Structure formats: C-alpha cells, structure tokens
C-alpha cells in the first residue's frame, strides 16, 4: 500500500487525538471502590460485551469478582449491584432514579414540570392517595374499559385469528383503564385521547433512537445531540399534548363552574384530575394556559410511568400463558369459578381470590425483565456495608438476573418457570422483596404496582375466559433483547373462541 508523505501528519494527528481521548477517558477509581473488571479495548471498555452478550458477561463478572463490581460502558464507569447489595441501594435516600434517567431519557426537555424536584413527590403522593387507596372503587370501571378493547380489537374469533402484538404490545388496551383513572370516564371514551396515551411513550422514544455513541465523549454530549430535533421544532409528541388539552380544558371548566354553583353539594368525580384540582397547591379559579400545561405534564408523566411498562408485562404474561398448555386448564378453572361467583362483575375481593393467576403473573414478571436495568445516580459518596465505596455521580445498575435467578430463593433450577411459587410462599405479585425487584424495592418501589397488577390480572382473566390463546409455534416464544433490556416476543398470538 502506497502512503504519501502528505498523509503522515494525518495519521499522527489521529493517533494523538485517540491517545488523548484514551488518557482523558481512562477510568480512575478512588480508594475502596468495587473492582473494575479488566477489559481488552481502550475507550470502548466493556461496551460490546454489555450490549451483545450481557447475560454471560455479567454472570462471569459476578462469579469472579463478587457483588458489587464496576464495568466501563460508553465511556462511563457503572457499578453493578446484585442479589447481596442491591437492597442497600433501594433502602437509601442517597440514590436517585430520576436524576439517573435525565441523560438517557431526557423527558424533561418536553415535560418541563420534571425540572421541579417536587414534581415526582407530588406524583407519588397522588398515585398513593388518588389511585392505590381507592383501588376497589376503580375495579368495575377497569374491567369495563378492558372489555371494551377486547370486544373491539380482538372480537369474535370463531376460527383461530392471529393478532399482531409487535405494534404496541397491548398499549391501547392498557391505555383505556389508565385514561379512565387519570382524566375521567367522559374523556376516556374519546379514541383520540386513548391513542395519545398509547402512543406518547413510543413517539418520544423515537427521538432516542440514536445509539449513545457520543457518550464515549460525555453523556451530556449525547443528550444534546438527540434532543436537537426538539430545539429545532421537531416534536412528535406535541400532537398528543394538543389532543389532551383540547378535550380536557372544557371538562375542567365545567367542573369549576359546577363546584362554584353547587358548593358543598358538589359531588367530585373519582379520577386524578379531580384530585389534582382539589389539591391546595394546585387550586385555581381560572383554567389558564399555564395551568393546562402543568396538569397535562402531570398526566403524561404518569402515562410514561404506567402504560408502556404495564402493556409490555401484560403482553409477556400472555405469551407465557399461550406457550404453556400444561397450565391452561388449571388457570381456566379458577377464572370460571370466580366469574360465576362475581356473576361477571368483578370486585376487588374477586380479584384478590385469583391466587393461581396472581402467582402465574408474578412468575411471568420475575422471568421477563432485563438482565440489568433501573439506573440509580449516587447523589453523594456512599459506603456499602461490606466497606466498598462509590463516589458521588456514579450510576448504579441493578443486576436483575442475579436477583431473580438466585438459587437461595428459587431453588436449584431458578431459570425454570415456577407458576406456583408465589402462591406456595404467600407472596403476591405486587409485593416487593430482596428477591423480586420488578417494581423496585424499599423507598424506590413503584407506587402504582398495585394498580398495574390488577390491570394485568383482570385483563388476563377476561381473555382466558373468552378465548383459547396459543403461540404460532405452540411453544414458549423467545423474548427480544436490545442489549440488556428485554421486550416481549413479536410473533403474534392466536385467539379462538372457547
């Protein structure tokens, strides 16, 4: 190969720049940190193994170096915490999920209320007081909304019908009861609002499609680049905001008017927007544009935290059911018995009696989720009980496979599907513990998990009663992995009338 004299300086500069980046980005650990796993490639570190072989890579690291350990991915050191250490992270106020996700999922660029640190506190309070505490009151409405979707989107299946699940993983199904609870029964009948709720997270995620290559320089560089479209006017989710405002504003104005006229005789509707407007911090006499922005931000933050994850979990549970014919009769018999007891109208007591289905859902959740996920940002230097210390600013990832597949809790074959484990051990699907982190744990546990589990159970109850459900292969379909993150299978499901 001929190399001209003029090309030599180019090679020299490339070498100098590459070496400078290597020196700048070379990880420097402080004293008493968890061990940094050795890597072959400067700058790249463990990125390739973490993206393309996360299960085997992290298992080998865990076996050789214990819990916790450090890996070097996309130019940043991340601490991986597993079965022995993770519970410490979730019991401490030193770690923040919201801060950790700002760079990788910069929703605050669109929902400005997220810039206020009190927003998440208000959201958690609203979910606990406005939804979880009143869950029995929502049960009837929930099943009505779910049946509306089932009858419309799946419908009558006298012959086997293949339903595509890849498009939204039943997001439209989950969006209906969520809309009912958030914005009320009147607005939740509007198909445009349902579509806005179902598509919001998916459309925002389209902005994040660029791989975080620029994070090798710095995470903020990547964030600045992926959010450029927003700053230049391309906002694929603005239409959803406009849709919600259009239908929500007249309802809010009507309620304020009725409240003023009726006074103490006013009967407040049961939904989160009523909870929001009755909260002293959010009281208003006039529905201004600023007030609409605030309440719509509040609603869509809840949508992001609920619909996408719950619909994925429902979809995965249906695949687990469809691919395991040995479980069909047992689960069907329980649903038939409860349907007869309830005369087709479920109450919270009937949902609580679905112990076999609850145990099945718990096991589906345990075996579904990512290899490693749930980033937490260390807000101050923190020392684990084993004496290891991590610095302020460090991102901590939960090694979910190490937690959900540990032999102490789940026996000698923890990767096998154990449909009766929750029932035999009296552990409901919504209960978090040190061996089950699907909803987080401790102070960082998801406040909406009770509602989410009820949605999944009621949805599966109605579907199992109405249809035979199978996979195209007749077997358990493989999940789709994007790096260490899991998605439900994309093969579709076959429905046939019982």
Key terms:
single chain; 498 residues; alpha+beta; Cytochrome p450; 3-stranded antiparallel beta sheet; 21 helices; globular; heme binding; Cytochrome P450; Cyt_P450_E_grp-IV
SSE arrangement:
Blueprint: H1 7-25, H2 47-52, H3 54-65, E1 69-73, E2 76-81, H4 86-90, E3 95-96, H5 97-104, H6 118-130, H7 135-154, E4 161-163, H8 171-183, H9 191-205, H10 219-226, H11 228-231, H12 238-262, H13 272-278, H14 289-322, H15 328-342, H16 348-352, H17 355-368, E5 373-378, E6 382-383, E7 389-390, E8 395-398, H18 400-404, H19 407-410, H20 421-424, H21 449-466, E9 467-470, E10 480-482, E11 485-487, E12 493-497
Parallel strand pairs: 2-8
Antiparallel strand pairs: 1-2, 3-5, 4-12, 5-8, 6-7, 9-12, 10-11
Write a compact overview of the structure shown.
This protein has helices at 7-25, 47-52, 54-65, 86-90, 97-104, 118-130, 135-154, 171-183, 191-205, 219-226, 228-231, 238-262, 272-278, 289-322, 328-342, 348-352, 355-368, 400-404, 407-410, 421-424, 449-466, and strands at residues 69-73, 76-81, 95-96, 161-163, 373-378, 382-383, 389-390, 395-398, 467-470, 480-482, 485-487, 493-497. The protein is of the alpha+beta class and 498 residues long.
